[in-house]
Amino acid sequence: MISAVRSKPVARLARPLAALSCTSTSLFSSPAVHVARRQLTINAAAAAAVASHRLSTPYRSQVRYYADYVVKVPHMADSISEGTLKEWNKKVGDFVALDEEVVSIETDKVDVAVNSPKAGTIVALYAKADDTVSVGADLFKLELGDAPAGGAPPKEKSAKETPKKEEPKKEEPKKEEPKKEEPKKQEPQKTEPKKAEPKKETSSPATTTDTSAPVAFSREERTVKMNRMRQTISRRLKQSQDTAASLTTFNEVDMSNLMKLRTDYKDAVLKKHSVKLGFMSAFVKASCHALKDVPAVNARIEGDNIIYNDYVDVSVAVATPKGLVTPVIRNAESLSFIDVEKSIAKYGAKARDGQIAIEDLSGGTFTISNGGVFGSMMGTPIINIPQSAILGMHAIKERPIAINGKVEIRPMMYIALTYDHRIIDGREAVTFLVKLKEAIEDPVRLLLDV
């Protein structure tokens, strides 16, 4: 309607021009006619331009354009080029807000959450659960825009209401069951009940034994696909055994003084620093103390070269439902007991919640594994390549020990060091364990650095 009204001035100016163009050129050969035609043409063009501008200007601000945005698989780490799509948290048609988690990808080390970089509605998913996706590949498409008007909640309510109406229908046939029992009562009233009873007694035990046997001794098998973390762990452990010349040496530690130190100061530490004082921090600091005297245990092999590290990044083994992870306490030689305990508590909580990052696992020059928390008395840990050694802690048990010619009961722990014999000799491995033993049995050595 608006376009018709505003185009009338253009039509009025165009009619004389059309009349002139239809007339024979011989009737309008004078210069004045040519001037008039030129003027009418200019006026008609100007009027058309003004009319089109007025028609388009008011509506430009009211037109809303929606753009599509394709989200790709993000960069996860330098050593990770692909992952397994674990599960979609959203489906096609769902609205996602800015920085909302849409999908999680399982990698060789951790699970990576992919958040939406923009707000919009999901219009396409380019992968399914358990698919392998590469870094940089298309993951899902968004139609950018604000959240739509809420229409889904009422559908959910109606879906929940329908099963409630079906419940009373299921109760009705239950009333018919006692009616069927009545004719059964008439059957035992026949004249031959005695002959039927022994037959039933002989058959009943046979049926009970047959039905109970498969329940008690099931032979079912289940096939579960290994997750990427477990596949990586198994591959690296086998690679470690095939690469390193592994050898394990043992020693035992009297934990009396360290346990007394913990008992005397654990409450004060918890009150001041809000962290529990455990044994792991003492073993980390004692390891750093011993590694200063035996640097080969803190080294690694690269090709034909030996790389000696002047710092100590301790990888602490933490058990998770998916497998064993080793977050790294960096520059542990420069940290205090309290700082080490805070780092262990932080990594332990992140590992249990599945929030540990890839950066937390990278690096490491020496590993400590505490199998004693599960009750292990003695074991031979496997080297975490490319490192050259790993320390194994075990359970604390009271045992009779000879002290100054007398037998005393002391809390003892076996410790084990598995090392790569290509770079570490037996003398160095034993020296490391002796230094560690001395520092644990007399923690004052760590304070005096002797």
UniProtKB/TrEMBL annotation:
Gene Ontology BP term (one): tricarboxylic acid cycle
Major localisation: mitochondrion
Basic and acidic residues composition-biased segments: 154-202
GO MF assignments: dihydrolipoyllysine-residue succinyltransferase activity
Any one Gene Ontology cellular component term annotated for this protein: oxoglutarate dehydrogenase complex
Region feature (Disordered): 144-225
Pathway terms, separated by semicolons: Amino-acid degradation; L-lysine degradation via saccharopine pathway; glutaryl-CoA from L-lysine: step 6/6
Keyword match Transit peptide: yes
Subcellular location(s) of the protein: Mitochondrion
Name this protein carries in UniProt: dihydrolipoyllysine-residue succinyltransferase
Organism, as annotated: Modicella reniformis
Higher taxonomy: Eukaryota, Fungi, Fungi incertae sedis, Mucoromycota, Mortierellomycotina
Gene: KGD2
